[in-house]
Amino acid sequence: MSEELLLNSIAAELGLKLIQVRNTVELLDDGNTVPFISRYRKEHTGSLDEDQIRAIQERMHYLRTLEARKDVILKSIEEQGKLTPELESKIKTVLKLQELEDLYLPYRPKKRTRATVARERGLQPLADLMLAQELETGEVAQIAAQYVNPEKEINTVEDALAGARDIVAETVSDTADVRRHLREMTFQNGMLVSEVRNNDAGREYEMYFEYREAVKSIPPHRVLAINRGEREGALRVSIEMDSDKIQAAIEKIIIRNRRTVFLKEIQEAIEDAYKRLIAPAIHREVRNELREKADEHAINVFAVNLRNLLLQPPVSGKIIMGIDPGFRTGCKIAVIDKTGKYLNGETIYPHPPQRKYFEAKSIVREMIEKYTVDLIAVGNGTASRETEAMIAELIAEIKQDGSREIYYTIVSEAGASVYSASKIARQEFPDLEASMRGNISIARRLLDPLAELVKIDPKSIGVGLYQHDVSQRKLTESLHAVVESCVNHVGVDVNTASASLLRYVSGLTMRSAENIVRYRDENGAFKNREQIKNVEGIGEIAFQQAAGFLRIFGGDNPLDATSIHPESYEVTQKLLSRLAIDNLETDGARLHEKIVTLEKPPKQLAAELQIGLPTLEDILENLEKPGRDPREEMPKPIFKSDVLKMEDLREGMLLKGTVRNVVDFGAFVDIGVKQDGLVHVSEMGERYVKNPLEVVAAGDVIEVRVLKIDLERERIALSMKIK
Fold first, then answer.
1. Residue 46 near residue 15 (C-beta atoms within 8 A)
2. For 320-488, CATH number?
3. Which of 205, 444, 616, 694 has CA 20 to 30 A from 283's CA?
4. DSSP conformation letters of 318-366
5. Has this prediction a pTM greater than 0.70?
6. What is the CATH architecture assignment of 3-107?
């Protein structure tokens, strides 16, 4: 299939214009990154967003892989001397890899099979007679008797018929239409069945000990749970089909003449073909497709949760104390300044005996007063609630003494220990022990979640479901794309960002990111974007891809603090001249008014400036709000000064909480007690909610009503139905 036909196929499949797909593929083939294309090549793509561009990228990769496989298969069949014009046409026009492999199946080199042995014994002619279905008279035994040959171990008529049936069965199994039809039937009518395999299996899989659900409707999270149970030896899993319907479906394709004397032999061969050859293969394929779809769904949920977590608003302009709670090894405390610089750290033991508790509280108070701490971030791990109680008590005492206001908040510490032992952490704090680095990470997560969380493997951040069961390669690729998207969406201050953050900027690698930091350390802060070209490893192409996402605040050119690309600086200056803005920094206050009162419609202005309308709109937006952080629009974390215990909860109580994780069946919400509560999907609104992600996102601050409290099992049921 030609490249043009591939582009047409993608356009039709994704509901896009051919020109959009063609231009996007050309940009991708030229080495442009998805964030760059999405932000700075809108005129070429028709303003496609990142998801659409990635969909084109993935589909084009699939179809090109398919075309390469077609070439291999066509060459193989041609070398066998079996390539017909009809078969060649079918192969060239197929659009699914599985259907392509079905067509190749009869010609694929096989291991020694029962059919192979039968052919070696000279039974192919008898099998051909059966498949031709032309003989309507005569005795089957008499016809088969001609093929009895003791020298070839065909001692009886039944031996001859059995061998011929083996050949017919393999032929039926290799028929592409049979495979395709049975695959569709299994998806539509099959039942996924699980039963207990190990009586000592834990209660985790108890609901699947005797379980049946239609293949076409089983939700992804149950597929993943059943697969895990099977992998751990707790469950035995199979697919059940109506054998009579299967037999009838195959006969409809294979049997053309029911008056043939070989009808019974063909029917037996069909039954054998399904049970021995087709069913195991089809069931594997169906299970694999269910797993792939479940993987894709779980990865998408993880990706959405991760994106929402990374885009949580920074808490800027505050001196923050981070506390990594613990019982045996104590609580690690760190104080960071408004830029994230580490100031000091301590280890306290605020748990029994009482003497240690008061000593710990005294140390925390001294540090609060010494460094003028504004906010305390408490990790949500072991001993979190006990530590929270001490902090709440201390804050109450500080308020009572008439001191200034101070608050605390609970911060997810997922992945903090991973960061503590990482190479990045060792480079940042070579003089600190690993145990003292996690508290710094907790504090910095409040200061700037994105800048801190990019240092941690996304799989360790603590959102998603069954992340260890899905394809790790696909999960890693997807999460990397999410981090890349978030970093470029927000933009990066090139003078303060770590190499861990810079590496995700469009066009940069870890090496070029480290080179930027090294250049900055040796030469001082960057004054303009052009200086970035002086960094080793950043040529014209890398600069083009990265420049618009790198910010320089307080530099030579105010435009360097915006997402306006340097390639648009000249036209931006022309626009500022038309708006009578001589100095963006001093005259910026009049900019909004000037833009609003533009007499010429944007389309005409864009034509006069010789740029596309999307680019003009982006420039105007950036001029109106230069240096705007898109995360500022997100809800801030919940800041508290007192503590709530699980025993304080009452049914019907209304509370504010932070969504920590969203899964298929609901959302886990931190309401400030030891255990996160669950809002089941059925409690997310008055209307039916199919996908929780349509209603809430990780990091959202929501109001919930307490439905039920189970103190013994430490479970809390919540509802978003407030009225």
1. no
2. 3.30.420.140
3. 205
4. --EEEEE--STT-EEEEEE-TT--EEEEEEE--SSSHHHHHHHHHHHHH
5. yes
6. Orthogonal Bundle (1.10)
